Amino acid sequence: MELYCENLYNRTNEKLLDISMTAEGKIDLCRKSFTAVQESLYKLKEYVNEHGFKDKSSEIIFFKSVQPKFLGELIYFAEVFRIESSCPLKPPKQKKGCYRKEMEKISAFYERHQELYWYHFSGKTDLDDKLFLRNGEIDFSFPDIYFLDADPEFSCAGSYRVGQFIAFKKVLEYLQISLDTLEGKKSNKTGPVWTGPKVWLIELIYALKAAGVFNKGKVDIKDIANITGPMFQKDLGEYYRAFQEIRLRKKNRTVFLDHLKTALTEYMDAADGM
Fold first, then answer.
1. N or C, which end of the chain is more exposed by having fewer CB within 10 Å?
2. Mean per-residue pLDDT over the chain, rounded
3. pLDDT at position 71, please?
4. What pLDDT, in 10s, does the model give residues 90-134?
5. Residue 62 near residue 48, CB atoms below 8 Å
């Protein structure tokens, strides 16, 4: 299951990248991206319904770390679509007010759910069987759910909320960039932008750590991540958690490194005229 979910997520990111390069404006981008992620969620749902989970541990991992990534993307595009559709023709001053109001709403959301937020992102596990198992003891209402049905075999209390945490963080970044643009502030970011899956970059930084190529091996993974993320304009987020997912891969735990080797070999062969 881990490999299927990872491959599906990577294929989804590739679709989103293609859409971002061809979409005609923000509304079109959000609409097409939402549809692409929704299709991937349906595929994920079909896979889960067909194969199930081998034990409670694998079910918890799925609803705590896997499904929320897809939900986060889905909710993000739905929220940006809603925001941009609500004030498409407003003058800059009113648009800035609209963006600030949305940021206040998100801040209020985090305040309401701060205990769950800190539970999840601090790495605690003592409530996992209540939050990340189907029919768990803790239940939330989902009046704003974005996919077509809340199938009890494909949903649980914590997964959707974690998806919101992931999504709203991205929405805040989007709103801040939009505000800066309206106020004439220029980004000081330069250089290449990482457009591959985030998990690939995380796999790379852990490989560099393991190889001991920085400071004769005397450097923490946090130091490498803090430099690498901004360098390639990529928020690495919970890279510790992502590394645990990489370790759990069944067939191949070095997908990106193997891809790099193949790509470089083919590049050199092409340069040699082979």
1. C
2. 84
3. 93
4. 677 788 888 889 999 998 888 888 888 888 888 889 989 988 988
5. yes
Confidence (pTM): 0.67
169's tokens: 């963080």
Domain ranges of the chain: 1-186, 189-269
Please state the separation of Cα 267 from the chain's center in Å.
30
Average pLDDT over residues 143-163: 70
Residue 154: partners with Cβ closer than 8 Å, 6 or more residues away:
45, 48, 49
Dig out the tokens for 170 from the structure. Answer: 């991205």
d(CA 206, CA 222): 10
Task: Report yes or no: 73 and 16 within 8 Å, Cβ to Cβ.
Answer: yes
Residue with tokens 């009046």, as numbered in its chain: 143
Q: For residue 164, which of 97, 229, 246, 67 has the smallest C-alpha distance? A: 67
- Rounded CA-CA distance 51/46 in Å is 9
On whether the CB atoms of residues 19 and 54 are closer than 8 A, the answer is no
Structure tokens belonging to residue 161:
């909320």
C-beta separation of 39 from 6 below 8 A: no
Q: What is the pLDDT of residues 211-268, one digit of tens each?
A: 999 888 888 888 898 888 878 877 787 788 788 888 887 778 888 898 899 889 888 8
Per the listing, tokens 């940006």 go with: 80
* Length of the chain, in residues: 274
DSSP 157-171: HHHHHHHHHHHHHHH
Q: Which residues contact 160 (CB under 8 A, 6 or more apart)?
A: 68, 71, 140, 142, 145
